[in-house]
Structures are given as C-alpha cells and as structure tokens.
Amino acid sequence: MGAAAGATPRQRALRIAAGAVVLDADLNLPDPARGLVLFAHGSGSSRFSPRNRHVAQLLNRAGLATVLADLLSPQEERLDERTRQMRFDIGLLAQRLVAGIDALRGDDATAGLAIGLFGASTGAAAALVAAAQRPDAVRAVVSRGGRPDLAGGSLPAVKAPTQLIVGGDDHQVIVLNRQALAELRVEKQLQIVPGAGHLFEEPGALDAVAALARDWFMRHLVANVLPP
Question: Which of 38, 111, 124, 151 lies 20 to 30 Å from 165, alpha-carbon distance?
C-alpha cells in the first residue's frame, strides 16, 4: 500500500478527561485523513515512545491520523516507576482508552473517522478490552509484541478485526499470542517478524511492523469510513 502524498500532518495537543484525571495526547492529522489510529502504550511507555512514534509516522504518510496518548497521569507514572503495578492494571488502561475513544468521537476534527487501536505490550490487552467495550466505534486492532492474553474474558467479545504481530525470537510471547488468537471470534491474523526480538530493535524489524499495521488499518478503516 503506497503512502499518500500531501502536506505534513497538522499537529495538535489534546487533553482527555478520564475519570478523576486528565491525560495528555498528541494528534497528528493528515489532510485529508482516511482513518484514525489511537495508540495504547504499555509497560511504562508514554506518548513519547520512540517505537510507537516511528510507527505513527508511517501511518501518517499513508493518510491515517494518529493519537499518541498518555494512559497514566504524571503522578501515576511516578508511582508506576516504583511499583511497576499500574502498567499491568488492564482494566484501568482500558478505561483510559475508552475515554480517549469517546473524546475523539466527540471532537469535530476526528468525529467522522473510523477508529483503530494499536497496542504494545500490556497496552495490547487494554486495546482489546476497550474494543470489546466500544464495538460500534473500534473498527480494527493491531498488537505489537503485545500481551493479548491479558485481555482474558474480553477476547471472545471483540468485534474488530485483529492482527497480532510478534518477533520471531520472542518465543514465550508467540505462545501467549497463539493462545489469545484461539479465543478471538473475529477476522484475525498472527504475523511473526523473522529474527526480531520483543522490542523489534533489529534493523528493519520495526519498519516491518509498521508496514503490516499500515496495511491492516488501510484495509479495515479506509474501507469503512463513517458517513459525514
């Protein structure tokens, strides 16, 4: 799928109300935008994750808007750095994603765009739980080196086509992804990137992830654009 020609995406800071906290997010909006991908970070990452930003840039070049949002407040991030517990609170992370989905559907700039979720690590489980809770809003899910197994009983309730991407050398996570794949009742795909580890740091590995994600989102978002 070739990249769409056009100007540099418009950038805008967002503030997302999620219960008792307000989360910071960065929106990149191509003109025209052909769909929207909300990123779900995990395992201590924030909206500044270099790997997720790399993937987002390729999606932007294909004409997809992206939102990279912090799922924890600054105070929660400091607590999580010490305890490492909140990054595994899938219910909390999913709740924050649902708040983001609802906010984007209510924003004039993004309300007409079909939404996909891109989850990494524990954020992948949160993305699947959020997709199950907002089946009318989420049109596609992609997991990068994720722990979709942690979505547990939400997996059979997911309605969005789901792609799981795992590094070929990430053997334990491959097993966990295969277990989760068996629980999904939608169009689904497991893609293994040969020679890649958990973080896809090997030359070309992250580009392979980005290309797979781009093609999945273009297939399931652009073909299902919401009416104006």
Answer: 111
- Per residue in 3-41, pLDDT (tens digit) is 444 457 899 999 999 988 999 999 999 999 999 999 998
| Distance, CA of 188 to CA of 79 (rounded, Å) | 36
